[in-house]
Amino acid sequence: MSRQPGNLPQVNHITFVRPILLSAIVGLSCLALSGCSFISAAGPSARAVNRAGTSAVAGNADIRIVDVSDSVARRIVNEEHVGLFSDRLGDGIPIGSVVGRGDVLDIAIWEAPPAALFGATSGDSRLASAAATNALARGTTLPEQMVNSEGRITIPFVGSVVAAGRTPQQIERDITSRLIGKAHEPQAIVRLTRNASANVTIVGDVANSARVPLTARGERLLDILAASGGVKQPVGKMTIQITRGATVASMPLSGVINDPRQNIRLQADDVVTALYQPFSFTALGATGRNEELPFEGTGLTLAQALGRVAGLQDQRADVRGVFIFRLEDPSVLGLPPGTEVRTTPDGKVPVIYRVDMKNPATFFIAQGFPIRNKDVLYVSNAPLADVQKFVSIISSTILPIATTAAIIP
Are 193 and 119 in contact (CB under 8 A)? Predict the structure, then answer.
C-alpha cells in the first residue's frame, strides 16, 4: 500500500475477492455433502420402499413386502378369483312362458251348442281345426289382451283374471272354470304373443345395443351377443360383464367361447355389457413411460407390462428396485392359519411385491406373474444415479466460481 500526498490509501480488491470465492466453494460443498434432500427424485428410493414394511396405511393396515418368486407367482395364479359365470351366476333354467306385466296375450274361446255365448269366427285356423273335430263347435278369438300394471286381463263373461306370474295353461284353466255353467263345454286357448317382461339388456362395444326378449328356448349369453350384431373389437380383447341384481361378474369373451360352461342361460332383467380394455395399471419412476395404461380383459403379465412402458431407463433405473403396489386379498399371502392381519376397511392388505430384475430367472417368472387392475408399477432410481445428479449439480454450481477464482491473480 502506498500513500501519495492528498490521496486516500489504495486497497487491492483482489485480496478480498479470493477469500470470498474460496469461502463460497467450501460453503457449497458442505451444503451439498450435508445430504441429498435437495436433489429432486421421481419417488422413494429402494431403501425407503424396503423400510415401508414397518409402517401402516389407511385403517392401520400393515404393509407387507413380498419378494416375487416362482412359488409366489404360482400361488397368486392359483388363488386368483376369475369369477367364472358358471360359479357366480349358475347356468340357469329356461325362462319358460310365465306371463308378466306388459305382455300381450292372444285368447280364443270355443264352446259346444246349445248354450253359445260367443259367435263363431271362421277366419281363425285354430278354431277351424277344432271345428273339424266337432262340426257343431262354435268359438271366437278375442282382441289381444295386454296384461295391465296390476297383472290382470279382462275377458267377457269371465271378468278380471290374474295373468302375471302364471303360465298360459294356468290362465286357460282359470278361464274355463269360470265359464262352466255359462257356456256348454267351454274351452280356452291362451298364447303369449309378445313378451315385454322377460328381457335382457345388452350394451357396450356391440354393433347394436338392444333389449332382447327371452323365450322358452332359454337364450344363452352368446345368443344375446349374436342378436345384438356381435362385438366391435377383436374377441381376444373383449371383456363381458353380466349384472344380475346386486351380483356383477366379469370374464374375458375368449374364456366364454373356449369353455361352453360359461355360455350360461340368461335370466330376465340381466344386463350384459361388452367392455374393451376395462382395466388399467399405472407406471411411475424410472420407466420409459410414466402414465396410466389400459389393458385387456384377457389379462397382462409383468413382462408384458414392462414392455408396454418401454422397459427401464438405463441411466436411472435400479434393477433391484422394481416394485408392484397392490391391495391384495389376505388369502393370496399364504399366511399360516390363525395369523392376524390388519386390513384396510374394505378387507384388503397393502402389499409391495419386490422384483429383482438383475436375476435372469426373474424374466421367466415375470412371464407368468399377473398384473391386476389398479396396480402401480414403480421403478426407483439407482443410488449411483442420485450421485451422478449430485455431481452434476455441484459441477454446474462450483466450477464457474472456481474458474473465476483461478483466473484472478
Answer: no
For residues 73 and 365, the answer to whether their CB atoms sit within 8 Å is yes
Q: What is the maximal distance between C-alpha atoms in the chain?
A: 157
By residue count, the chain amounts to 409
C-alpha cell at 92: 340357469
Strand partners, 324: 353, 377
> H helices within 315-382, ranges in order?
361-366
Output the pLDDT for position 111. Answer: 81
The reported pTM is: 0.58
> 382 in helix, strand or coil?
coil
What is the per-residue pLDDT for 217? Answer: 83
Give pLDDT, residue 218: 86
Beta carbons within 10 angstroms of residue 117's beta carbon = 16
Contact (CB, 8 A) for 372 and 77: no
**Blockwise average pLDDT, block size 10, the chain, 409 residues:** 51 50 53 48 78 64 87 83 80 76 88 65 49 53 88 91 90 92 86 82 93 87 94 89 92 91 92 90 93 86 94 89 91 79 84 93 93 93 65 58 58
**301: three-class secondary structure by DSSP:** strand
CA distances for 385 relative to 312, 313, 390, angstroms: 13, 11, 9
Q: What is the DSSP string of 220-255?
A: BHHHHHHHTT-BSS-GGGEEEEEEETTEEEEEEHHH
Q: Give the Cα separation of 25 and 155 in Å (integer).
A: 105
State how far the Cα of 258 lies from the Cα of 265, in Å rounded to an integer. Answer: 16
pLDDT recorded at residue 20:
53
C-alpha cell at 66: 413380498
Residue 257 corresponds to which cell in the numbers above? 367361447
Could you tell me if 265 and 212 are in contact, meaning their C-beta atoms sit under 8 angstroms apart?
A: no
